[in-house]
Amino acid sequence: MRRVVIGTAAVSMALSVAACGKAGDKSSDSSSSSSSDSKTIGLLLPDSVTARYEKFDKPLFEAKVKELCSDCNVEYANAAGDAAKQAQQVSSMITKGVKVLVISAQDSAAIKSSIQTAVDKGIKVVAYDRLAQGPVSAYVSFDNQKVGELQGEALLTALGSKATPKSKIVMINGDDADPNAGQFKAGAHKALDGKVDIAYEQSGLWKDTVAAQKVSAAITQLGAKNIAGVYSANDGMAGGIANTLKGAKISGIPLTGQDAELAGIQRIVAGTQSSTVYKAFKPEADAAAQLAVNLLQGKDIKSLATQELTSGSGDKVPSQLLTPVSVTKANIKDTVVKDGLYSVADICTADFAAACKAAGLQ
Fold first, then answer.
1. Rounded to the nearest 5°, which phi and psi values hold at 111?
2. 176-195 pLDDT tens trace
3. pTM exceeding 0.85
4. DSSP string of 300-357?
């Protein structure tokens, strides 16, 4: 009799477990269905040091996604300059069930395996601003070699008659882990080689402190009086370089930049930086949002990504490339002010009021 009771209890427990299992399966199916119906787009940006990402790219991208798809959501994360952290963020995005991932890679090669994992889960990946390695569905950026050419040409223009094969130029490039940095560098060399002497060339890793250290070493090596100009791959590094030049009592020499950061524009007005490159943030963010929404909705992107580039991993990537613009003191009004990136009041704070008046901005 005792055996019968035990047996009955065991059957009852087995049925109960089976019932729980079915309930669990139903829950799992519901979760899977919810994930497959997800309208969530992930946005991963590389760092918070470069002013543009948090101030412009993120809000502009989010706004355009909402305009195109009112019931879509954007999950956001910033790698803070850490490639390993960005890899973790990709994993988190996968867990959250994003269907499209827009990523500006902190390290284009290191992120490859994470992108492969995302794609294996059925996620479409859009490379934003930087061409990440791996099976990405689309890429949107600017013509990065043209950016470097514009920087080099602006430097030569600023040098004027001093642009001779004997004029010594210090060249501070971006981070080699960023594929854009190599394209900027190639474009700059195309413009500068044979026309000036690139006497010192190093990577500044996109950091103002590192760039400042490199320029300090260049001054020691070449001599303050022998430096005719400095090529800086972006405005952030140009800020550190400008401070170093000031400390070494070097003034009146050209200094390039890129990204049209407010501080860079103000240095141009003040005469401590000669140029920057304006890559209009809104068209780029809008283009990325349109690509992401199209991929989410299963729409074609051929009319958007009309070019094809080969990434560092050998993947052929449909690409949309926008046109950069060189900015000097002469065209600040017609570029960043006209487009509403900054107002004259933004630029012409008390410290720059006199320089703005002299530049015709006030």
1. -85, -5
2. 989 999 999 999 999 999 99
3. no
4. --TTT--EEEE-TTS-EEEEEEEPPEEE-GGGTIIIIITTTSS-HHHH--GGGHHHHH
